From TrEMBL:
Keywords: Monooxygenase, Oxidoreductase. Gene3D superfamilies: FAD/NAD(P)-binding domain (3.50.50.60). It comes from Streptantibioticus cattleyicolor (strain ATCC 35852 / DSM 46488 / JCM 4925 / NBRC 14057 / NRRL 8057) (Streptomyces cattleya). InterPro entries: FAD-bind_Monooxygenase_sf, FAD/NAD-bd_sf. This is Putative flavin-binding monooxygenase. The lineage of its organism: Bacteria, Bacillati, Actinomycetota, Actinomycetes, Kitasatosporales. One of its GO terms (molecular function) is monooxygenase activity.
Amino acid sequence: MSGLGAAIRLRQAGITDFVVLERFHDVGGTWRDNRYPGAACDVPGHLYAYSFAPAPRWRSTLPKAEEIHTYLRDCVTDFGLEPHLRLNSPVDEARWDGTEMRWHIQAAGRRYLSRFLITATGLLSEPHVPELPGLGTFRGAVLHTARWDDTCDFDGKRVALIGTGASAVQCVPHLAASAAALDVYQRSPPWVLPRLQRPVTATERSLYRRSPVLRRLVRTAVYWLRESWLLCFAGPVHRAVSTCVAGLARAHMRRQIPERDLRRRLTPAYPLGCKRVLLSNDYYPALRRAGVELVTDPISEITDSSVVTRAGTARPADVIVLATGFRVDRPAIARRIVGQGRRRLSDAWSDGMAADRNIMVAGFPNMFLLLGPNSGLGHASLTLLLEAQLDYVLDCLARMSRRGLAQVEVLPETQRAYTARLHQYVQRTLWLPHLCRSWYLDPRNGHNTAVWPRSVRSYRAMTRRFSFDGHRVHTQDR
Ligand code: NAP
């Protein structure tokens, strides 16, 4: 989504000399990879689509994965991006040459020379496969939710699903309906709220298609509604708001689960909002179906045909589904980017990811990160943050062009001051290591390096204009 968004905005700005390197055979990122049954977005479609490419054809208020994937493919056609796309082109290395002031990029046996490098590799793109003893010896199929195998047939199979995050909650009701038996292995329970979702009627879709004003009105209304969710996670009253909303989640659970013991095992022991709050109307009912078991005893090992828990119980399985999330703190692309002084981005980030305004990294000239550190959102649409970052990047490029500059680089002290301010804001949120463990926090230091801790509005204000203050610049001949 970020790579295609950048391509569209570059073209709109009249910049056409660029390529988009995609490691797989198709565009779509998250929405190409997460094809598990039930995959859908938790953010209303009006806010999730790019503002410059509204999606009035989506049929659900919370669009399904395949709808968004189709939308992104349509964007490729509608905005004429095909000539720029290089599919099946995983980047092996991108190396900055300070003399030439160019990036040398190697991808799938080809070399590219570029003045600028934009990374758009996604925050949640590297599946996390847990180190469970014996996992490699399992004889049945092992699937990760983000590497789904459409040919895997669950009919009549005994399925072990590990994890109870956003992916699991969407997948479980579907597997519960098709598998002969489903064991759901829960390490810590999520907070779950009702999923307020409905089909978008044909009349609405037709109105949205014809009326940009209506689309804008609805988008603005949804924007403010979602922005107000931040009250639950950050700011002066978030503890009180979180407690109230947890009351709603408990009521949702009571309505759907009459069994007191099951409710006890499903009730989180951390404040609502510390991890991603989930939305589902069919997860709890699925756990009550015949053949479905919630297992809270920790997994001790996997054998060739079963999952064994600490109490010594071995539950036979034909398929293991890993709904175990993503590696966020050490993005794979960081090992492949070599900046000034031959320093790898992964080395610059050995103590944790950091970037000025979440976009530029000291020691890596002419490089911009999209949806990099602290660019996740716990309360609103990622697309909003992405578009703010695109505004910033394009403003930087335009200003460089006007001043005849060849190189721009953020100063280390600028980045340090920004990161210190960011961590102060994080202290006023629920995303702290003593409250719960989540992908928001870097396990190395417990810092939130994944999620933006303030409003989208404040991020937009911070990125509206690029300023050369706090940056080092060079003209062509230095
Ligand atoms: P996740 O939220 O990180 O959940 C991973 C789950 O796996 C957690 O329950 C975790 O337990 C468990 N787990 C990890 N390692 C384990 C181990 N060694 N043993 C046992 N359990 C283990 O991942 P996700 O569900 O894929 O979701 C990731 C993010 O993707 C979401 O937060 C959301 O931002 C996005 N997403 C969005 C949607 C949507 O819009 N509807 C759908 C799917 C994903 P602990 O909780 O104890 O760590």
